[in-house]
Amino acid sequence: MRGKRGRPRRRPGVVLGDRGYDHDKYRRLVRALGVKPMIARRGTEHGSGLGTQRWVVERAFAHLHWFRRLRIRWEIRDDIHEAFLTLGCALICWRRPKASR
Hints:
101 residues
């Protein structure tokens, strides 16, 4: 199978942001980089759908904080910390209930 021609895109197509980034200055900066901003507006009701995708990332960080060695970084060397991070991600995927797959 072939994808799009040319160099692979390294920038995301869309950036999600909460109400703290609701300002035209931030929208202009993101658009100047060629990325579409999806930033929630202040004063509007919740339910824009941005939280459903953010929740996945925050939940992943919470799962990684199960491991004390990752919660507080004791390692000085980056490669050792990355190895523990990879091991933690593998253990989280392994422990994941089979019913939710």
